[in-house]
Specification:
- This protein is mainly alpha-helical.
- Among the domains are: 1-38, no CATH class; 42-58 and 92-124, no CATH class.
- The protein is built from four helices and no strands.
- It is globular, with a radius of gyration of 17 Å.
- The mean pLDDT is 77.
């Protein structure tokens, strides 16, 4: 499920187009939606960033040219509040802790890979168009 979310984030595919190896797309989407609504996603991001920052793996000096960042035509009027939670019980504490640990480990690996990719890109010669 976590790999499915990360695949969608990396590639930008629609939820319905997730490869079958990640399981039913509705399940992956629903878990991601619930984690976004209850603050789990934000908490995971904060924990992974804190661990990476403590290890010195984050370079906080980033420059982005706003001329290259375009908003989608449907970006205006986006919902400000997270989607509401569905009714239902919460997962067992042990299972939840295991999922958290797995997700934090996986996200830490993603942060490392992004950092390696950025280093490779910075080391490559500049290309002109």
């Amino acid at each position: 499920m976590i790999n499915g979310v990360m695949y969608r984030i990396r590639t930008g595919v629609q939820w319905r187009d997730l490869p079958e190896r990640y399981g039913p797309w509705k399940t992956v989407h629903e878990r991601y939606r619930r984690w976004s609504a209850d603050g789990t996603r934000e908490l995971l991001l904060q924990r992974v960033q804190a661990e990476a920052d403590a290890a010195g793996d984050i370079d906080w000096e980033v420059s982005v040219d706003s001329m290259l960042v375009r908003a989608h035509q449907h970006a205006a009027g986006a919902r400000l509040a997270p989607p509401p939670l569905l009714k239902g019980g919460s997962a067992k504490a042990v299972r939840t802790a295991r999922i958290w640990a797995d997700l934090i480990g996986f996200l830490a690996e993603v942060v490392q890979e992004v950092r390696r990719s950025a280093a490779r890109a910075a080391a490559s010669p500049a290309r002109s168009t």
